[in-house]
Each structure stands twice: as C-alpha cells, then as structure tokens.
Known about the structure:
Blueprint: H1 2-19, H2 27-30, H3 40-55, E1 58-61, H4 62-68, H5 77-89, E2 92-95, E3 110-115, H6 127-143, H7 151-163, H8 169-184, H9 193-196, H10 201-215, H11 223-235, H12 242-248, H13 274-297, H14 320-329, E4 334-335, H15 337-346, H16 351-366, E5 371-372, E6 377-379, H17 383-387
Antiparallel strand pairs: 1-3, 2-3, 4-6, 5-6
Helix pairs in contact: 6-7, 6-8, 6-10, 6-11, 6-13, 10-11, 10-13
Amino acid sequence: MIVDQCSTVLGPFSRYLGRNPDSAHTLEALLYLPVELWPLETQAELDRLKARAGTDTLCLSYGDLTQRLNAIEALSRDQAIALAQLFDAINVGCEPDVLSGARLPKPGDPVALFACATTDGSMRADSAYQAAAVTLDLASAVAAADGKTSPIETSWLSSHIDAWEHLSIAQRKRLKAHLALQLQQPPELASLKKKLDPLDHDAKSKMANFLAQLAKAEGVVSPQEVQQLERVYKVLSLEPQAVYRDLHATVACAPGVSIVPGHAADAPGFTLDMDRIAQLQRETAEVSALLAGVFSDEAPASPDLPPPLPEADSVNGLDSGLSAFLRLLVSRLQWSRAELETATRHLDLMLDGALEQVNEMAYERFDMPVSEGDDPIEINPDILDELAL
C-alpha cells in the first residue's frame, strides 16, 4: 500500500524527468513533488519568501520570483496555477490571482505576495470583493496620473480599504496587495467602462467625488491628474467640466490645499477634514455595494460541464482523481483548453500532467491515445469502446 501511494505521488515527477532528464532541481519539475521533497536550498528560499510576505506585502517581478525558485523558463499556465496553489497551501497569497482566473503574469510584470489563510480563496471571488477591486483600479489610475504615487495617496487609499467593513479582513488584506500592483501598473480606463456603465448617475457621482478627493490628498493637483480625472469622468458618463467643480469644492481639505500646475507635494499647513473623510469612506462603501450588485448580475457562467462525479472506482489503474477526469474527458468529443483547465483545477490536477497520464495509460493498454491536440483538445472516438466506462 505504501509503495503504491509513493508511486502515485512520484509518478508525474518521474515521467517529467523521463522527458527532461537534466531538470530534476528546476521549479518546473519540483512542482510535481510535495514541498517536503524539494532540495533544501529551494525550500530555504521558499521559507525566506514566506517570511518576507508575512512581515509586509512583498512586491517583485514574476520572473524574479520564479527564478528564485530555480525556474529555467517562463511557466505555463498549468505550472503557474500549481505554484499559486503551493503558495496558498503555505498561507501566502499572490496577486494577480491566477487561481481566480487572472491573466498569467509575464516575467517582467510585478506580483505581490502577502500572508493569508488557506480558507481565504473563496472569499475573493464574490461580487463585493470584485466591486471594491474595480473601485481601486479607477483610483490607482488617478493616483498615478502624474507619473508617481505619493505615500500620502497610498495611505489615503489604504485607510479607505480599512473602512470597508462590508468586506472581511482577509479580503481587505488582498485588496491592499491588489492596490500595490495597480499603483505600479495602472489599468486602462477602457477596460473598466463595461462594469461601470450600469451604475446610476448618483452612484457615478459619488465615485467621481471619491476620486477627486484622492487627487487632492497631497494638497495640490497636477495638470496630469486633472487630465486623467477628465478621462475618468468621461468613462463614468459625467460631464468633464464637473471635474473642476469637484476639485474646487472645499469638502475634503483645510486651507493650504490648492489646484495648481506642477507636481504634487506636501502643502504647508495641510490638514485633512477627518469627518469628511469618514463620510467619503461611507459613500465609497455604498458605491462598492452598488457595484457588487452589477457584478453579481453579470457573473460569467460556468463552463458547460457535466455535473460533478461521485467518488468512483479506479478506471484502468488510474487513481480516483484521474478516473474522474477521464470520465469527464470522454463525455464529449471536443473541449476547449479553458474548459479542461477549469475542470482539472476543481480536481486538484494539472491539465497537461493529467492528459499525459491518461494518454500513457491508453497507449499501454490499447495502443492509442485518449486525446489529441492542444486547443481544442479532441477525443479519439475509437478509445470509447475500449474504455467501456
């Protein structure tokens, strides 16, 4: 029994080494193994990353992160998901969140690591969290409009995140990591327009007021920030001229705040009206709740997959996870890669590894593969009678 269990755990790693005999210590190979079996040097680097993420949000490039763990090339999406699952298992969160469908980072893209709990995963996918993330996306676009984001602006946004009590502590912590990345790579406004269009005029006005106050947080507003606010107001379907009305309103600042050409800097005698900030925090929480309703209405449909399979007996020597995957695989003659990536993620499998193992089984037993192709993935109809599922 123990030998069989070890063989199951080590099988994918062994097959990878069969194709890549000189890659035993690379991250690409190690992702097939439990962390306890990794080389001590790589385990130590993983521990260092965890310790730094536990102290504060750790931002670094994705290429730097993977190279520290001895990757030799850019990771595939399956490998990136496996790495994110590994971090999740050791209570380290990662942004962008590939486990929730985010785009795979390129080697030069920034990523953020932070301490989390293993139970945090499902909470970040709800509509309220997504709505708050969009609010911060807009805010980061404004804050970075003059080419830099000041500590004052960052602190101002962070205090608003802390005030969003409709979100859990874990969600707010992830939002701060999300914000750290967005301030480095602000999103394109056009990519946010679709989510903002369904909001009514009052909600858009509150959102705009929040962003105008952010621009004034340092005490002066640069021309670049004014221009970016005009673009944001257009995205919100508000009159661009309203920017100047909102900026000149004396609702967020004490004397010493001005709207002048030039770079933002600390203004002498600058203070914050804390009562007004508290009011703005409440208003942005309301906007976030409104946006949450929009996200809930527009949530993407799940892939058209068969209902979950019950725990099944082994099929042709495969373990229960691979047996369930095989039954799903042959229920149709063609799949998109995205559909099967979703399915294998739910089964805690890596798609390429799972396909490789079921095809190896089929070659050994029936001298033919189960599937062919990469996207779409086509099922060999001749295998169906042989499998007799």
